[in-house]
């Protein structure tokens, strides 16, 4: 089959590789009809997440048709399914608590040492996201092997197009969980850093959960426009000092909840701005491979958050953040919630919202490309962020 | 878990001597020397233990001692005690989750384990059950005919509030002499903890999820 494979920093190619097979009883093999490039893939592309090997197949946002099933799969050939990017066994302590991304059993035993050393515990399994999360082949390919297919994939009705349901695999539940983690109360002002696809779903979710107002922050005009379209007020951090603006827009109180939908590769180092100034040092350390994440947006979010407010962090981090404003966090009494998304927890609820047209899942798609042009998709999603807001790939076109 | 006299081998605990030499060579102040030397003459971990013995499993002690290779590991499994005991009692199932065990043949209370050794070799351990408390504990020991001297115990304890079972495994072995022996010694010395940890994790996967997770894409990879 054809698949998008990793060959080093900023070097991805479409190669011919062996087709996947059923290995374990609960497996299924899916023929992929649509797959997307995620902001998380850019962290791999930029080489800031360790443990990705040459030839690894990337991609964790995908859907398609069931073509093969293991003896313990509950799926049937021909069914149309969306597959969560988190691989979860459904039976361990964490899965039973609906903390699916913390599953104890998905990440193969011999792959667990790395994150045990790095984080104190082994993390769960993810598709196409380095050997730290299991080394599973991803879905930017014609076919994919899906473990635990009896608990992960959701069957979707035929009347909903791929574009409408594809993002159930990751970014829609990620935005939804980010808003859920912000514990939104009536009358809240919620600030969202990053108007990428995740940020855009955070905005819609926060409003659906009863936020009075969402203020979204980015520096790309097209992305800020999309944020506005999703119902947010916007701040362009190149035009305006963000913390000052947030204070003034909330009568000096600050946002009740802040959401970091940027992650470890925050842009911008405006030196007049305390929370962002350290980002320059972060960038240099990240470039020379010191394992420091770039935390500009995160620092700014903590700085702006009101006393006793809440910080929700869907943005991905992999290592350490220097100059972390722990004092501000403690003295203001801010609550933090974070994590890879527990996708399976939200699927049914979100499918219903899509069917009822309560949530718009297609407006951020800027480009649809054949799988063969995936490298072009990566390059532009990285370098032309203003116009390339979300790329959907079609295998076999 | 029972207190065990043998300590973890290969553990590099605090070793004050290199530190001492380093500081001396650098000509650092006497105050620093005194600090570095402290564990040698003063409040060593061993002395502290006499004052208060903590509640961690003894195998984790920072003190170094003992010669046989020794592995201890605890894992919480989200299944009832009886189910785990039954599976473990059936030694023939070991190859399903123990990477180095190629085959197990059971004859009554004695079983023969074929263990993979480096360079494509195998060795056998002949093992007999010496203690069998249903749903609680199993202990085994090698017979005098065995190529490897080994013994082990596995304990099953209920976790609180229906959270499953704590499984505690302790395995100890003395490699045989000769070339094969050296190869096995190498194997065990290299990564006994890693091996035990991986094996127990695979046991947990098998018990909870019904299969051992793998990220292989094709069967050929196996
Ligand atoms: N927790 C999860 O399970 C999960 C799932 C999917 C994605 N993510 C993560 O969410 C983050 C966003 O994903 P995406 O797909 O939207 O990525 P993206 O790269 O498309 O969007 C990130 C946006 O942040 C903006 N930005 C950068 N620095 C900023 C700053 N200092 N202030 C404000 N905005 C800034 C960028 O201009 C960009 O528009 C990534 O870190 C991704 O890895 C997490
Ligand atoms: Zn993603
Ligand atoms: Zn699980």
From TrEMBL, chain A:
Record-annotated Alcohol dehydrogenase-like N-terminal domain positions: 25-153
| SUPFAM superfamilies, sorted | GroES-like, NAD(P)-binding Rossmann-fold domains
Q: Which residues form the Alcohol dehydrogenase-like C-terminal domain?
A: 197-264
Q: In its keyword annotation, does this UniProt entry include Chaperone?
A: no
Question: Pfam families, alphabetically?
Answer: ADH_N, ADH_zinc_N
The GO molecular function terms of this record are: oxidoreductase activity; zinc ion binding
Q: Which UniProt keywords apply?
A: Metal-binding, Oxidoreductase, Zinc
Its family remark reads: Belongs to the zinc-containing alcohol dehydrogenase family.
Name of the protein described by the UniProt record: Putative Glutathione-dependent formaldehyde dehydrogenase
Give the taxonomic lineage as stored in the record.
Bacteria, Pseudomonadati, Pseudomonadota, Alphaproteobacteria, Hyphomicrobiales
TrEMBL record, chain B:
Taxonomic classification: Bacteria, Pseudomonadati, Pseudomonadota, Alphaproteobacteria, Hyphomicrobiales
Q: Which SUPFAM superfamilies match?
A: Bet v1-like
| Assigned keywords, A-Z | Membrane, Transmembrane, Transmembrane helix
Q: Which Gene3D superfamilies match?
A: 3.30.530.20
Record carries keyword Transmembrane: yes
Report the transmembrane regions from the record: 20-41
Do you know which Pfam families this protein is assigned to? Polyketide_cyc (PF03364)
Q: Where is the composition biased (Basic and acidic residues)?
A: 48-65
**Family note:** Belongs to the ribosome association toxin RatA family.
Name of this chain's protein: Coenzyme Q-binding protein COQ10 START domain-containing protein
Q: Which residues form the Coenzyme Q-binding protein COQ10 START domain?
A: 77-189
* Record region (Disordered): 46-65
Q: Which organism is it from?
A: Fulvimarina pelagi HTCC2506
């Amino acid at each position: 089959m054809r698949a998008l494979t990793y060959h080093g920093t900023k070097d991805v190619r479409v190669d011919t590789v062996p087709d996947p097979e059923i290995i374990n009883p609960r497996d299924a093999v899916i023929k992929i009809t649509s797959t997307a490039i995620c902001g998380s893939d850019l962290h791999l592309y930029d080489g800031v997440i360790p443990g990705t090997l040459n030839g690894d197949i990337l991609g964790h946002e995908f859907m398609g048709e069931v073509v093969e099933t293991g003896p313990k799969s509950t799926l049937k050939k021909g069914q149309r399914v969306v597959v969560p990017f988190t691989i979860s066994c459904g039976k361990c302590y964490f899965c039973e608590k609906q903390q699916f991304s913390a599953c104890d059993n998905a990440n193969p035993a011999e792959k667990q040492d790395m994150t045990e050393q790095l984080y104190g515990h082994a993390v769960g399994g993810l598709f196409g996201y380095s050997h730290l999360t299991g080394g599973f082949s991803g879905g930017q390919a014609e076919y994919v092997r899906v473990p635990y297919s009896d608990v992960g994939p959701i069957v979707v009705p035929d009347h909903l197009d791929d574009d409408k349901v594809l993002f159930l695999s990751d970014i829609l539940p990620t935005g939804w969980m980010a808003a859920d983690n912000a514990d939104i109360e009536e009358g809240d002002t919620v600030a969202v850093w990053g108007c990428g696809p995740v940020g855009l779903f955070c905005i819609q979710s926060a409003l659906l959960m009863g936020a009075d107002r969402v203020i979204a922050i980015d520096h790309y005009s097209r992305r800020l426009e999309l944020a506005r379209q999703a119902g947010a007020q916007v701040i362009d951090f190149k035009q305006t000092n963000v913390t000052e603006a947030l204070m003034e827009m909330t009568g000096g109180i600050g946002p009740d909840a802040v959401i970091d939908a940027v992650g470890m590769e925050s842009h911008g180092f405006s030196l007049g701005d305390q929370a962002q100034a350290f980002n320059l040092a972060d960038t240099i350390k990240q470039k020379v491979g010191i394992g420091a994440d770039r935390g500009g947006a995160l620092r700014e979010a903590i700085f702006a958050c009101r006393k006793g407010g809440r910080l929700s962090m869907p943005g991905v981090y992999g290592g350490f953040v220097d100059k972390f404003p722990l004092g501000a966090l403690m003295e203001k009494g801010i609550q933090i919630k974070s994590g890879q998304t527990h996708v399976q927890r939200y699927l049914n609820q979100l499918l219903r919202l899509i069917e009822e047209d309560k949530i718009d899942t297609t407006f951020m798609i800027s480009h649809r490309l054949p799988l063969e042009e995936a490298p072009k998709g990566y390059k532009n999603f990285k370098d032309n962020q203003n116009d390339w807001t979300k790329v959907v790939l079609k295998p076999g076109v | 878990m029972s207190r065990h006299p043998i300590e973890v081998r290969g553990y590099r605990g605090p070793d004050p001597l290199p530190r001492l030499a380093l500081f001396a060579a650098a000509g650092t102040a006497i105050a620093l020397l005194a600090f570095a030397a402290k564990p040698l003459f003063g409040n060593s971990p061993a002395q502290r233990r006499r004052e208060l013995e903590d509640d961690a499993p003894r195998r984790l002690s920072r003190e170094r001692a003992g010669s046989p290779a020794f592995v201890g590991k605890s894992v919480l499994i989200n299944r009832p005690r009886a189910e785990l005991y039954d599976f473990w009692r059936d030694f023939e199932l070991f190859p399903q989750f123990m990477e180095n065990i190629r085959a197990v043949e059971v004859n009554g209370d004695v079983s023969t384990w074929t263990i993979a050794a480096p360079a494509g070799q195998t060795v056998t351990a002949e093992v007999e059950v010496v203690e069998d408390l249903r749903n609680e504990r199993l202990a085994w020991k090698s017979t005098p005919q065995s190529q490897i001297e080994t013994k082990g115990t596995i304990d099953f304890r209920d976790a609180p509030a229906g959270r499953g079972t704590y499984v505690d495994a302790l395995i100890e072995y003395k490699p045989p002499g000769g070339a094969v022996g050296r190869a096995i010694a190498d194997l065990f010395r290299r990564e006994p903890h890693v091996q035990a940890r991986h094996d127990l994790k695979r046991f947990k996967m098998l018990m909870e999820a019904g299969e051992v997770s793998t990220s292989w894409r094709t069967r050929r990879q196996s």
